[in-house]
Every structure is written in structure tokens, then in C-alpha cells.
Amino acid sequence: MITDFFSKPETIAFSLLAIVYVLGRKYIERKERRTRLISDEEYLASMAAGMNCSEYDLFLVAAKKWHVSILQIEDDFKRYLIAGVLPHYVRDFVRKNRSADGVEKNDKINPGGKLPASWSA
User: Fold this and answer.
1) Considering only CA atoms, which of 96, 57, 92, 93 is closest in space to residue 77?
2) 66-89: buried (b, 16+ CB within 10 Å) or exposed (e) per residue?
3) C-beta of residue 42 within 8 angstroms of C-beta of residue 112
4) Model pLDDT for residues 37-93, shown as the tens digit of each residue
5) What global pTM score does this model have?
6) Do 34 and 105 contact (CB within 8 A), yes or no?
7) Fewer Cβ within 10 Å of end Cβ, the chain: N or C?
8) What sections of the chain are H helices per DSSP?
């Protein structure tokens, strides 16, 4: 029964086409992962994981230099959690503390960097 299935030329062609498609997709994804820039939001999460602190703690550290009030920090953090918008002082902090090799861009499981296992979906 299985030999009859693979003896047809259409079946062999379809199987080869499926294999080529899967390999092509993997190649394209790997190439895109190498060239993809990591966003400030992703880097903030990576920094927090690497420093064993929360993103809110990094908001507090970033706000010290800019002399931002605690109420503004809390409002900005809520907006970040809801809409994913980083305030200017956090974006400045992330960009100034970015390291060239701090996040592995070629991580096969998570192209955005290393995050704790509890954060994966």
C-alpha cells in the first residue's frame, strides 16, 4: 500500500516540493534572523533578564538621570504594558547601555535574545 503510494510520479514530485519548501523557509528565516535589528523593547526585556531585575526597575534607573517623578514613571510603565510604548528616558537608557554582543541574535529558539523559560509562550 505504501509502495503503491510512492510509486506515482505526482506523489514523489509533491513530496520533493514539500521538502524543498520547508528547507527554503528555514534558510530564509535564518538569514532574516541574522540581519534583524533588535527593538528597544526587546532589548529592555533582555537587559532585565540579564540583570535579574524587572523592567519596572529599569524604568526607575532610567528615570533618575532625567529626574522624572514617580507618578510619571508609573503612568509611563502602564502605557508600556498596555501599548508597548517606551518613554524617551527609557529609550535613551536602553540605547546608551546597548552592548554589541549582549544579546545573541542567532539564538534559534528566540531570535530576540535570551529570556527566562517562564516567559516563553
Assistant:
1) 57
2) eebeeeebeebbeebeeeeebbeb
3) yes
4) 888 999 999 999 999 999 999 999 999 999 999 999 999 999 999 999 999 999 999
5) 0.58
6) yes
7) C
8) 2-6, 9-35, 40-50, 55-66, 70-83, 88-96
